[in-house]
């Protein structure tokens, strides 16, 4: 069988090909010579599968798409406090080349406008690196996101530096406010190099997939930045990534995104996929015309909007029944699907509304597909409270969805691989938990 | 067993009680006499369970929290095009009482600032209702969100109307731009009534839960507004709901939210819960001090941030094995958990990477907890392609997760309730699909 | 002989007649029906002579030209402190219909924008009058500036009131800031009546001439407002009168001015003339196209720019000679022309550089055409110092240019009508000054 | 006798000495070490006399006071069109260090803010000079205004250049808009040198006096810039010279002025005097605290406000009588004082209202102290019209106030030095005008 995803991408790419509106970026000669008809679209899954159509291996410069990744590196290297003291997170409602500094402090409004991005560049390497080494760190960091070594396009870089007056203006302004405390020219030089890193649509999709995958590159398996950094970066992309069209994008597309003037556009859907498109003609906001059209299609066709409420899910409690009678009676609560707070709440309710009178209670996780921290803590709390109420509590957890099953103060829990293990053992033989929190006798 | 959720709410409410900073809204006398120490917090699940702590049944006026709900009603009544032509969706980065009209057109930047909210009020009822009937429609609409009949506080309303100069200023300005085309005083009068609707924290949580539940009130089961309206409203709350602290909120809390000057604050987490807090003292942004603190705790303690990437989920394909040998060989692909695009892609890949050579292929949905539109369409496309490749395709779907199983052009699929039904029948006896898309012989 | 001034006005009016660019104000129907080809120009001298050409007796509504005059009335009625606390004097660089309130206080930037003008209207009559009586006071005040009774055009007024949403917006905003403290509708109603006062170009020229004449109407001789008020009004007209074209006007025309949307335009050149033009087509700033062209011609042709430095004046000391010899020797210093500070300094220098050794010193003012306060005080100080040096000082002042000739502490001065009176009297017979400061024996 | 002007200056300086509020400029170390108690005040008359009190020969850097003078040089070198295309003339209502560029074009709002001043610097020398030579041209130009060779303070200049980030920001921004078309660093370097020119209060007063004297240095007699340039510079100083306090200054002081952060402050009163003060402590607008206080005193004590209407002047026509009877009858119109348009109009009216029937008409200018272009042209037109009416016209003009007495088309005029020359000659003997426009027989 052939996968229908490449077919879909081909189809959508074909649908937008008739749109020849927009203009090439022309503020530097190197961008103005791009081939305007080039178009490509790539999906990269959080486990590294790549689907593409069109020009997915054509190299172009990353430009502003480097901003969220450099922001991630800065947060990872310098810490949240340092970065937030220098760069805000508020939408500016302005075009990318507006200065938008906070009155009084001179703090750039967010890291997606140039002022914020220049400041962010200077915060990579925790402010400790000489400019050249910092550029190396940035290029290596972007490479880690992409999963292959990236390089700087020297010609574009030189061309941009010749036309960097607006960025130099911004950097000197930042220096005058003390937001930058080093030579503004060196920072702009480094920032221009950052923007001149060559990428393909395939690379960009993988970079986006790394964000979608909580900071771990799906290809290499390397953790590039911490979870909390990714959450921050995605939040800022969601509110500030599309400049003065932020609200339109948030309502119509609803995927945290970032565009670059060379025609790239990325989106990252947490836990699902990274998407990248490439088409050089830009609209008046500076976003790729076809790229925007493609994302609108993707969001609409595939329900990728972050505010899209999934259809009512099947109950997380798939069954709640009593097995065996008498003193050995066993209350079995079978769970299923992905469990987050709302799912855990349903389990709590199940137990509270119909508190088991049986002496043994089994929570069966065999069919559970995912469980997050709060749900895990709530399950353990259920176990603890049931213990205090006098029950023996068992967790059927063959794949260790709850890796550290310690219900804490007064609670006890026995982890088994199979419901039959509980059924077959007599009441009252609950073993001691081993140092790894799992009863060694049960494994 | 006692649920730990009320305990949790009590604990968090206790933790923030020491914070007595902030001031009561004092721009109208009726608000300035609120009891400053009142505090409450409520969770309402998408199936209607309510957990609360503190003052959850104290009545106060809804104020600006009415904005997203009136926006929902306006979208539902007047349609997206009409509403978007009059009110934008871009964050304004300004306080709630700034005018923030687009230069030239006079269109308010978004429906969460007063200018946008006043315009929105006028769009409820599709612009066809006399002012009094429009107010009725708004109050009934808010009541539908809350699941009980709400009323207007006449004293607060009168007090606000006496001090409505800023809103009158805005309304006259909107009238001068043609954004409003009726008597500005009547619109402001209606808008003030809308803001003076009395609610409790319990009501607000249920209203938020209605948004979290795709527009269907969890208590009454009534659809209040369409799905697409909810998505729009949540998107706008996410980017514009907290005024000039939108970016801080989006990064630190990450729950679409809205606050009111009487001390209310709501958040809606799509598919999970509605949250409401009540505490009258406000910070300099006009948001409830304790409310903001509570939401920060909720988001952090419970992983409720919309950009929080869930931990890597268990594979959607739980097993892929061949059953029975020879010509009757059966390829069984067992699925589990919630399936959206990314999950469906994994199934596609499973089939593509290892195309079944068996003549019969079974997709077993028994353990699937949810499936969205795109995943459903992709499953059917798999079935269609397998049919074209010469396979007979079976769907084990006892709970009709795929309600209309027509794979389209050239595809055929047989739906059964149990895998054994397939195993037991000989190859080549595939029945005809009934008019309901399900083979009548199988049920 | 025929005066060449009407010829000049005819010629210039003819020169601009070919310019048919611009548009009639159309925001209210009554203005849109004006006859676009009407044009007129009037000069009114500070002693009441009127020269005109074209449509100088056509009535139209005064509109914004009422602003400086109402500001004058407010300053006169409420005092500088009260008015300045409510309305600033800074240029706004914005169009007339921008709101331009100071952040925080809500104080309008200046009295020439609508927000300032509405506030100003409310300050006429010292805030003590009921709205109707205040309108009467304004109309009577404008009439006093014009020198004839003016009336309100009820049709225009009604038409404007129907379209007064922007002004109502502004007034409610001012009320919300406490800049206005009464019913905003009543103030706007009064302000609209103020703008609907009917005037002719002749009236406007006389109103401007009243400003040029230090607040005294040249026709009636009535003092309408105080000198200091006129200075303030002219200063504000100079910096804020032409909205966002203030700098262009200040450099190219250099006459304090004010325009109205009905096509009027006035300029007041302190001490010289009032000018008014009328032509209804407006440019994009809302100023009369031909009016602006006419003023550019007037300024350029007649050297009326306030920063135009007059050609080097003839020496204020026309002669300095000794008459008669011996003990009766008389030092005669003859002065001429207009004397302000710079002229008085020259006289001081004359006396200091060549201190008279003669026992009698005569300051002869016979040929002096004007003298201001500081020059008068300096002349008296010269006299005082000469007295202390031992001289007898005489002032030849037949027209009482120095009305109260008391040199103060230790100084003495004898005022005579004719130099011969001094020459003929012997040294040492200086008479005593009478109670009116003039020696009775000399008259 | 001692002049009272130094006494006055001493007194006023003493009066403000108790005011120790304000702060030294501290953005560069060199300014922060100024002696804060230094104070001085200087008056320089348009004929070069200097009065001073306090520290009038202390050197400090000119800073922003260089702006109007460099603007004058740029206008003179590059022409109005070129300069106005690059720098506007509208007040910005902003502090000196705001960027204030016009949206879209990037044109600085006016030459008094830094963006405008940097652009202006680049326009000195008509854009043809290498940076170093341009600095020489600027320093020589400032020296010409001061009447002595000025020099650059190398230490301050180096210190400023180290802290020039805001100016570099502005210059790069201007370069990005194409307002500057050369290396921004070189322009800022030159501009910083311009600001670092050392001056004394005495120098500044003389520079201001050069503006007050129509561009001719009172000391050297050299014309530094054209008349029309001075008018432009004074107009811009009047509206933009005091940054965001422009309106306060225009109403309260009313003298075109400019301040510098080193503590200097100048004012130029056209045709009268140049004023300079020096005191280093600055208010929040960046203006010298005592300097502002001194100017308020000067304006108020001496009636120097440009909108101050001089007291009603004595009639320009001092007498109008008939001398001798019969055919030799002579109509003598004696004029006096300074004559501008308004005065000339009075003369016209005198002749029109009472058209001479005598065959000979004499206009006697003996007592006229000044006469401007328009008045001169009007006098000649009177003569022409009287000639056409059949009169012989005589001008008594011993000091050649009307240097080129040609009444034009059909007019004839005889210039004499003394009225008796006319009285003594018989009617009808009017001589022919010589090539210099004056009858050779009369001299």
TrEMBL record, chains A, B, C, D:
Superkingdom of the organism of origin: Bacteria
GO biological process, one term: L-glutamine catabolic process
Reaction(s) this enzyme catalyzes, per UniProt: L-glutamine + H2O = L-glutamate + NH4(+)
Ligand binding (substrate): 64, 114, 160, 167, 191, 243, 261
Top enzyme class: hydrolase
Keywords in alphabetical order: Acetylation, Hydrolase
Disulfide bond found in the keyword field: no
STAS domain location: 332-402
InterPro entries: Beta-lactam/transpept-like, Glutaminase, STAS_dom, STAS_dom_sf
EC annotation from Swiss-Prot or TrEMBL: 3.5.1.2
Region (Disordered): 424-443
Molecular-function annotations in GO: glutaminase activity
Protein family: Belongs to the glutaminase family.
Summary of subunit composition and partner proteins: Homotetramer.
Descriptive protein name: Glutaminase
Native organism: Myceligenerans xiligouense
């Amino acid at each position: 069988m052939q996968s229908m995803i490449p077919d879909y991408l081909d189809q959508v790419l074909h649908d937008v090909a008739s749109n020849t509106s927009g203009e090439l970026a022309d503020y530097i000669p190197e961008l103005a010579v791009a081939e305007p008809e080039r178009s490509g679209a790539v999906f990269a899954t959080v486990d590294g599968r790549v689907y593409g159509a069109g020009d997915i291996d054509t190299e172009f410069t990353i430009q502003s798409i480097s901003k969220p990744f450099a922001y991630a590196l800065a947060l990872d290297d310098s810490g949240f406090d340092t970065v937030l003291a220098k760069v805000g997170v508020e939408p500016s409602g302005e075009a990318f080349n507006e200065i938008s500094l906070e009155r009084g402090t001179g703090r750039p409004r967010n890291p997606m406008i140039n002022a914020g991005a220049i400041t962010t560049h200077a915060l990579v390497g925790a402010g400790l690196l000489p400019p050249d080494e910092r550029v190396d760190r940035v290029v290596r960091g972007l490479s880690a996101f992409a999963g292959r070594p990236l390089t700087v396009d020297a010609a574009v870089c030189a061309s941009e530096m010749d036309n960097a007056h607006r960025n130099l203006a911004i950097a000197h302004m930042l220096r005058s406010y003390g937001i930058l405390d080093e030579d503004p020219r060196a920072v702009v030089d480094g920032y221009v190099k950052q923007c001149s890193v060559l990428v393909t649509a395939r690379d960009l999709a993988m970079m986006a997939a790394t964000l979608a995958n909580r900071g771990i590159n799906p290809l290499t398996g390397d953790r590039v930045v911490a979870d909390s950094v990714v959450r921050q970066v995605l939040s800022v992309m969601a509110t500030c990534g599309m400049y003065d069209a932020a609200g339109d994008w948030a309502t119509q597309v609803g995927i945290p995104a970032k565009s670059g003037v060379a025609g790239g556009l990325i989106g990252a859907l947490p836990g699902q996929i990274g998407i990248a498109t490439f088409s050089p003609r830009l609209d008046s906001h500076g976003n790729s015309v076809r790229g925007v059209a493609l994302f609108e299609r993707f969001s609409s066709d595939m329900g990728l909007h972050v505010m899209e409420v999934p259809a009512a899910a099947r109950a997380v409690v798939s069954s709640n029944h009593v097995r065996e009678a008498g003193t050995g009676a066993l209350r079995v609560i079978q769970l299923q699907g992905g469990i987050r707070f709302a799912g855990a709440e349903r389990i709590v309710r199940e137990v509270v509304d119909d508190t088991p009178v049986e002496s043994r209670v089994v929570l069966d996780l065999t069919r559970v597909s995912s469980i997050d921290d709060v749900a895990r803590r709530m399950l353990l709390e259920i176990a603890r409270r049931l213990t205090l109420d006098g029950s023996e509590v068992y967790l059927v957890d063959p794949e260790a969805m709850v890796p550290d099953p310690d219900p804490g103060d007064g609670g006890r829990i026995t982890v088994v691989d199979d419901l039959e293990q509980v059924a077959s053992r007599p009441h009252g033989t609950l073993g001691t938990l081993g140092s790894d929190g799992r009863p060694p006798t049960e494994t």
